Give the backbone structure.
Amino acid sequence: MSFKNIIGQEVPIRALKNLIAEDQVRGAYLFLGPDGVGKRTTSMEFAKAVNCDGKKGDACDLCSSCNKIDSMNHPDVFIISSEGSSNSIKIKQIRRIIYQASLKPYEGRKIVFIISNGEEMTIEAQNALLKLLEEPPENHILIVTASNIEGLLSTVISRCKVVRFSCLGQDQIQAFLQRRGIDEKKAILFSHMAMGSPGRALGYERMDIITTRDRIVNDFFFRKTALLREGTLNEEIKRDLKTSLYMLLCWYRDLMVFKFTQDKTVLLNVDRSEEISPYSSRFSIDRLERDIATIMKTMVYMKSNMNPKIALFNMAIELKGI
Ligand SMILES: [Zn+2]
């Protein structure tokens, strides 16, 4: 697709193109920015651009090198991400990179390692990576993508050139979705709910996000008492808990934002904005702050693999204010 098709990231793309044009691509890069804004796509396009046989400074999308990278079949481009159910990138995966880095490129000009969601590296893995960062081999590039800088050791960050990616505007995401054939009504809702992330917005089409949102808002906002009394959780909510919790957070966020602004145009749940106004007035700011903190705390618990059933019941109790 080449750099020109990445939307809304003009600043980092320009910086990367300049590096290629000036033949300054070497060492390690940290692509830092929110989830779903194009960090991984850009790293693939960067890998294509530095190895492209047909074009200088960008990917031609036609040569053998570009095609192999697109189909993940290039022998010199490696993507490292978390394996198994642990959600972590382990030291053995980093050791594999260190071995590969001792070799010369097979057919490309540069070997490219892309560590996707680098904050998922264990401490041991990050410490092992330091060796490579301190003595970067020639003709090798390492790209670490991350949305949460706090998960990375300062020694790792300080050895990478940081390239920052930012959120996109709602209108940019809406236009992007409509170009992909999503109808206007859905594109408006998804682009609002995506909070700046086109990747997240695109995922909504696949996930039937409206049903997911309605289900969790129904259980944890409208019928908390019944939920606690019946003691049964909707299995569908547990199936995609991360998205469900995010949807609930968006709902409470709207209640809070409306309280301050009294403006329906700044809401995310644009299709249910008529309901937000009356419910918003029923809660105090303190109460909404506490409820938002409860949902965010549950999201953190889920990341640390807490039993979802226990976490959700605790959340229902706290949201109920018992
Ligand atoms: Zn090419």
